[in-house]
Specification:
By secondary structure, this protein is α+β, with helices and mostly antiparallel strands. 19% of the residues lie in helices and 33% in strands. The protein contains four helices and nine strands. The strands form two sheets. Strands 1-2-3-9-8-5 form a six-stranded antiparallel β-sheet. It is globular, with a radius of gyration of 13 Å. 36% of the residues are buried. The mean pLDDT is 94.
């Protein structure tokens, strides 16, 4: 399941552009990533107001199998985090593209979105592994 309306990173995060230049992007992990991780039991997200840089770690996802870094898909400021996943981290497994979203980032450079993968490119990347 790889929604066509999203963009993707090589670290298996998805990005949904919520609008124009004055609107943040929303991100989470892909269905492929949550399957690889197993049952998510704890999510550590960056605080609102945190400045993040594209490709840098900004949080952690702990599963029954391992602890994995969560990487910033774009540079900017974290403007929202999903309170539902704090209380119910399993939402990342059951609804990774919906209620299991993780953070919203106000990009400092929207041109970085152009470097993300399309759904077709991401599908090719995960099926070739």
């Amino acid at each position: 399941m790889i929604p066509e309306d999203l963009q993707y990173t090589g670290e298996h995060e998805w990005v949904r552009d919520l609008g124009d230049a004055d609107v943040p992007v929303r991100m989470g992990i892909t269905d492929f990533a949550q399957e690889q991780l197993g049952d998510i039991v704890f999510v550590q997200l960056p605080d609102i107001g945190t400045q993040v840089s594209s490709g840098d770690p900004m949080g952690e996802l702990e599963s029954t199998k391992s602890v994995n870094d969560l990487f910033a898909p774009v540079s900017g400021e974290v403007v929202a985090s999903n309170p539902l996943v704090d209380a119910n981290p399993e939402l990342v497994n059951t609804d990774p593209y919906g209620e299991g979203w993780l953070v919203e980032i106000m990009p400092s450079n929207r041109d970085e979105l152009d470097s993300l993968m399309s759904s077709t490119d991401y599908e090719g990347a995960v099926t070739s592994n």
